[in-house]
Amino acid sequence: MALRCAAPGRVRWLARALAGSARLLPPATAAPGPPSPARTRPPQLGVRFASSAGSGTEGPQRRVMVVRITSPFAWLRTRFYYLLIRLYFDQEFSIEEFTRGAKQAFSVVSKLLSQRKLDLLEELVSAEVLQVLKEKISLLPDSHRDALAADIDAIMYTTEGDVRIYYDDDGRKFVSILMCFWYLNGANLPDEVPGEAKVFQIVFGDENTKEKKHLLTANYEFQREFTEGAKPDWTITRIEHPRLLE
């Protein structure tokens, strides 16, 4: 889904996309939590690409097979936290609904970053993270900025990296969920830049027609305050594009 971001109406659209269990909180009301403990490392993936001609369509279609490798303990831990969220914070919370909203938010925010439209991120990203992004984006070469953008159809895999429930010194309650995204991007990057990400050449038709894509990763953390009377919205409190936005 291609998105053009140019007006406050886009912010309202994104808020509606994350309605219910996954809405975005304006940074002015988002309170920072205590220093984050050591995070669990996003699971490693094995990815294989293949192409085949689809019936009823012109030309070959791309198929992506993703194999997730993670520990049973990490899987049980995140499910236990989801149960706590439903029991004590939000009975309507759904990780499936949240993931759909997080993917849309990631696509919108990554494109705004790529286009340097940081003023449109003020209601989507915390003030602290936005200030850091402004400094980093201004120093990026064009190829790295292009590689930040993720079309929603180019997101190959999405999973949770870590879930936290905590209280600050004033007794306010917070939940944060770290989402990990793997996406394809055709930016003109040298093969060694993405670090752990590999570069795949996908061939359509004959050997003379090649489409080169980078498989890149990004980590976005979403935080919501669950204190009584707080707005039921989420804000992005962490943005990482390894080896691209450092």
From TrEMBL:
A molecular function (GO) term: ribosome binding
Region annotated Disordered, chain positions: 26-58
GO cellular component: mitochondrial inner membrane
A GO biological-process term: protein insertion into mitochondrial inner membrane from matrix
Signal peptide stretch: none
Protein name: MAIP1 protein
Organism field: Thryothorus ludovicianus (Carolina wren)
